[in-house]
Hints:
Elements: E1 7-9, H1 14-24, E2 28-31, H2 37-42, E3 50-53, E4 63-66, E5 73-77, H3 82-87, H4 89-94, H5 96-102, H6 108-111, H7 116-122, H8 128-135, E6 139-143, E7 148-152, H9 153-156, E8 157-159, E9 162-163, E10 170-177, E11 182-190, E12 200-208, E13 214-222, E14 229-230, H10 232-238, H11 245-256, E15 273-279, E16 282-288, H12 294-301, E17 320-323, E18 326-329, E19 342-344, H13 358-365, H14 375-388, H15 394-401, H16 411-433
Parallel strand pairs: 1-3, 2-3, 15-19
Antiparallel strand pairs: 4-5, 5-10, 6-7, 6-10, 8-9, 11-12, 12-13, 13-14, 15-16, 17-18, 17-19
Helix pairs in contact: 5-8, 10-11, 13-16, 14-15, 14-16
The structure holds flavin-adenine dinucleotide (FAD) and FE2/S2 (inorganic) cluster (FES) (2 copies).
Flavin-adenine dinucleotide (FAD) is lined by residues 29-37, 39, 78, 105-106, 110, 114-115, 117-119, 121-122, 124, 127-129, 165, 170-171, 196-197.
Amino acid sequence: MKPAPFEYAAPRDLDEALDLLAEHGDDARVLAGGQSLVRMMNARQVSPAVVVDINRVPGLDTLGVFGDNGSSTLRLGATVRQRTSELSGEVAAHAPLLAEAGAYVAHAPVRARGTVVGSIAFADPSAELPAALLALDGLVKVRSRAAERTVAADDFFTGPFRTSLAPDEMVVAVDVPAAPGRTGSAFVELTRRHGDLPVCGAAAVVGVGDDGRVSHVRVALCGADERPIRVPAVEAAVLGADGPAAFTEAAAVAADGTPVRPRRRRRPMPDKVRVRITVNGTRHDLLVEPRTLLADLLRNDLALPGTHLGCEQGVCGACTVLVDDAATRACLVFAAQLDGASVRTVESLAGADGTLHPVQRAFTQEHGLQCGFCTPGMLMGACELLERVPEPRREDVEEALGGNLCRCTGYQNIVRSVRAAGRIMADEQSEVRA
Ligand SMILES: Cc1cc2nc3c(=O)[nH]c(=O)nc-3n(C[C@H](O)[C@H](O)[C@H](O)COP(=O)(O)OP(=O)(O)OC[C@H]3O[C@@H](n4cnc5c(N)ncnc54)[C@H](O)[C@@H]3O)c2cc1C
Ligand code: FES
Ligand code: FES
């Protein structure tokens, strides 16, 4: 079992849900789509005593437009799935930005469970939907057993994963008012892979009045600060404009960056550092950013993707390489620390003609690899051990590779493989001597 034990409550109406939150306060967590909460509970980043599953509360799945054309409002209840919102005709007609931004969230299976309101309540500073709600001038409808209040998106997000919600409160819906005038919107983001949280993203809503001038503009960023933020300097550059020149100016303001983050001093980019490093026998003379990790240098700059990244926290051992013959976590060493060092990766093992290294042969013969994800780290750890201890005992292997996790749990075969590799290497050496 990954999460810590907790009491599961599935209230059948809103009052019951609010009673539970009032009773348990900080010890309780609302479970909406669970796509963030369960992940955190699996990692034990959070361990609520009580999980309040709101998915059976009637009325929270409301999705609709209320009011007349002059002051209509789109309402999305707390259990409306991200996928439902993304595909809804009413959302597309009333707040296309929400649908557009929503399509960038994760992958369809995650959006099929994750909720729009859950993403807002989670308040991940990189997330798309909070920035979209901010640009749309949205409202967050909050309930507790004692009271009901409406919070402007501008005031709802208070920090990374922090909101103005009290422990006994929950969000019951978000409202998006009709945008004034002739209005257009757009969402763009920069991300490493489709479905990842964005490095940063921008949501914009621009309305044009009868005189052809921009009468309404809201620009919000995600991934740019500790919470989704508006960009007043960019908005000011566009408001009242009647031609495309203003957008060029706004782009320059945005690119300059200074007015975007007035509250914090931007940390100057430090000088690059010179690193002379030998990797798999090839010498490299490189200029690297001080924050470049060895694993990223190998995979991204030197095109050696054999070094795998699992946890990136030093825990799983997938990224193990040899630095000056010592097994080292490549995810926890900066390249800048390695000027003059010699690094060996899994790519160094096979011969130029493709002949496998004894360790690779032994892993194949003894079924020491299944999916192969942990294998590069295991192989390099094994090489280091066999260079130190040519005929290791079982305990030697366990000691050397005990910090390397195999998700396929092939540990017995891995231990056998390492010891078999020792025997193959010893045999080959005696053949050479003879
Ligand atoms: C593989 C993967 C990739 C992802 N990629 C992205 C991405 O690219 N962009 C992105 O934005 N997100 C991403 N996510 C997160 C995902 O979108 C979540 O669905 C979302 O952040 C939370 O919504 P949820 O309904 O699942 O909330 P839950 O996980 O149920 O809840 C999240 C938090 O909000 C609280 N909460 C939920 N609903 C309420 C409420 N009504 N009132 C008060 N508190 C509430 C919970 O108690 C919990 O603390 C990803 C998740 C996964 C698993
Ligand atoms: S990725 Fe480096 S230890 Fe897991
Ligand atoms: S072989 Fe699959 S993780 Fe180890």
